[in-house]
Amino acid sequence: MGEKLAKCSNQDWLDNVYDKILAKMKAECIRVGSNIPYTTDKDGKYQDIEQTQWGIGFWTNGFWPGMLWQMYKATGDDVYKNTAQDVEKRLEVLLKNPETIDHDAGFLFLLSAVADYRLTNDKEARRRGLLAASLLASRYNLDGKFIRAWPDAMGEMNMISNDNDKRKGDIRGVMIIDCMMNIPLLYWASDETGDPRFKKIAISHAKTAQQYITRPDGSCNHIVVFDPETGEYLNNPGGQGYEQGSSWSRGQSWAVYGFALSYRHTGDSSFLDTAKRVAHYCIANMAVCDWLPLVDYRQPDNPLKYDSTAAAITACGLLEIAEYVGELEKRIYIQSAYKILRACDEKFCNWDSEADSIVNGGTFFYHDPTGENTEVPIIYGDYYFIEAVLRLKDKSAFLW
Ligand code: GLY
Questions:
Q1: Which one of 50, 232, 340, 342 has the largest count of C-beta atoms within 10 Å of its C-beta?
Q2: Among candidate residues 214, 227, 236, 234, the one with its CA nearest the CA of residue 143
Q3: How far is the CA of 281 from the centre of ligand 1 (A)?
Q4: pLDDT one-digit tens code per residue, 375-392
Q5: Which positions of the chain have pLDDT values less than 50?
Q6: 268 in active site
């Protein structure tokens, strides 16, 4: 951020960054089209997800169409709608292969098919959304009262904190905080069909997450393992953060936004209280770190690693909470969101229209042996940054 913008009012900063989003997204939409980006390659360019190790089922593949739908809502420009619909058709293949779908069905289909239906009333898009919701609901474990995370293949992946924290237990018994952002697909399905089953599964999962994932001080576990046969609680191993018992910042941000959304969809004030408790913890941690989230709020001072995606997601969550509190209470949420977004813009944003991606500095998980997933552009950082700015401009589409 230049000296002038660093000192300007929030409104001036907002107007300026909105104009930059308009310019960058128009150029990017034309350049990227219906390719699905995740991160940039060593030359700083997006590749289509099917040219990478991640593939068409990767959990982030809804964020590009989500960005396009946000831009369509803000501008009315058909190029965004047409491109988003082309991506949505590419994702259809997942619905024909249910084993490729896990708890991330919400990220994939709320931001593609359901967004399309909400904004255009397209009946095929509604069908895709309802099918995705049924697949998500089918992952509910009746005894443990949670939606199972991750596919079987993940059981062999070693994306854990350190050697003492090997993910313990059976992959079939795992729930994770991230799923709080996926259950809005179930709330939508109940609203759409009038059938309460989807919503009841979402509420039951959210209550279990309140009990086993959030801690009294506002920090969160990433993972909980239950016995998949009996539903008995087993343990909380470490996850994508620093270690067991630490505080992975993106997980914290999923909790802030996810519990606020469960409040929106249910009116259960305990969900709003949980969202606020986690939000206050995140605000306190960012306030002592120049308003930037470390990858883990309990990581060592060295090496200093940030995760800009946690910043953007937290900002959206704070703006969601601000919608439900009284006038005199809004300030802490809205002003903190501005602080976080402006710090993120200053340190991590690239507004060159010729360059792929906006927000750099995204980190997938703390213990990244190659460093290839540390402080890099990640598509959901861009999605949530854009959503937050459009929310503040009163131009966003509600997609959750
Ligand atoms: N949902 C996976 C992540 O946040 O990294």
A1: 340
A2: 227
A3: 20
A4: 999 999 999 999 999 999
A5: 1, 156-159, 161-167
A6: no
